[in-house]
Amino acid sequence: MPKNQITTKSSEETKEFAKILVSEWLKINKTKNSNWLVCLYGDLGAGKTTFVRGLAEKFGVKQAVNSPTFLIIKKYNSSKKENRKYTLYHFDCYRISKSEDILDLGWEDIINGENNIIVIEWPEKIEKILPKKKLNIKFEFVNEDTRKIKFKNNIYLKL
Ligand code: ADP
Ligand code: MG
């Protein structure tokens, strides 16, 4: 049975989990020129942005990753990974009232582009326009330092 749930006991462990996912994804994405859409569900403080920090680090993003709540979207360049340069788009849809609002932010180009890593906090706000092919991850608060992280394992992620 593929693993589809983990418990982390610190923000470092959550970042480490993100890094493992990235390396698994990089392994299977070697020959393709595709995008990766990752949707992060969970309440405020559940650890979504912490996860994005780990993911960004693994992609070699140099800048500090902060929650884009007021900006909705932040863009980062990765360093070269497996001979390819990725662009990381970090969305926070908390303040979006309807799915269509995201379309004004260049959504179609980003989703249909190449080598884009698209990570979305509060994806439920734009559920209507989300493509089917994505990795869903759900973060749950257990106690101050502990989070339960559930994800729908795709065939291409062998954890
Ligand atoms: P969100 O983006 O879901 O609102 P953040 O990642 O911004 O959440 O905040 C999570 C907070 O919880 C941070 O202050 C982080 O240090 C803390 N934290 C404590 N334990 C964990 C854990 N196991 N995983 C992730 N964050 C944790
Ligand atoms: Mg956040």
Radius of gyration: 15 Å
Top CATH class: Alpha Beta
- Average residue pLDDT: 90
User: Distance between termini?
Assistant: 10 Å
Number of domains: 1
Residue stretches low in confidence (pLDDT < 50, at least 5 long) are: none
Do you know the CATH architecture?
3-Layer(aba) Sandwich
Give helix % range: 10-25%
Spatial sequence of strands, sheet with the most strands: 1-7-6-2-5-4-3
- CATH fold assignment: Rossmann fold
SS class: alpha/beta
Tell me what you see in this structure.
The protein is of the alpha/beta class. It has one domain: P-loop containing nucleotide triphosphate hydrolases (Rossmann fold, 3-Layer(aba) Sandwich), CATH 3.40.50. 22% of the residues lie in helices and 26% in strands. The chain has 3 helices and 7 strands. The chain has a 7-stranded mixed β-sheet, with helices on one face. Helix 3 (107-112) links the parallel strand 4 and strand 5. Helix 1 (11-28) packs across helix 2. The longest helix has 18 residues, at 11-28. The radius of gyration is 15 Å and the shape is globular. The protein starts with a strand and ends in an 8-residue tail after the last strand. The model has no long low-confidence stretch (mean pLDDT 90). The structure holds adenosine-5'-diphosphate (ADP) and magnesium ion. Adenosine-5'-diphosphate binds at residues 8-11, 13-14, 42, 44-50, 67, 121, 139, 145-147.
